[in-house]
Amino acid sequence: MSDVSRSTQAIQVTSILSIILWAKVFATNMGLGGAKNNAGARAPEDGYQTPASEASDEAKVAMDRAQRIVNNDLENIPYTLVLTWGALYSINAADASSVEGNALAHIIMFAIFVACRILHSVVYSKGLSTARSLVWLIGALCSFGIAINGAVASFKIP
What we know:
The two termini are 27 Å apart. The longest helix has 37 residues, at 57-93. This protein is an all-alpha fold. It is built from four helices and no strands. The protein has helices spanning 6-39, 57-93, 100-125, 129-154.
């Protein structure tokens, strides 16, 4: 049995998962840059890109898909990160013995959210509409769950 409290584990896991989530955002942004390069859609001074007149329709579709992935990340990840760290504050401000379940729920929901955001980018890039919607929904439910869990924990603060 570990001497580390569940609340401390929640801080540790949230920190690691936040780094993983940021790496995923960085990777999708880099992918968008590459897609724009192939579609001739970067800034005009980027002379190394494919000229727009020579870009294939496939490259233009790939760029549009990459842009939509980045946009979806911007619509979901920042808000959930704020909710996640706010909920974690409430969990850690409360009496440790009364929030062990909240801390565990926090860990599980944020881990699922991060996995869903990674999977969402994969299925979106593959054009799998139903899977994309399902993965997005699970992640969105986790966002709400994280917020509600944090609110519940806030009522346990002495």
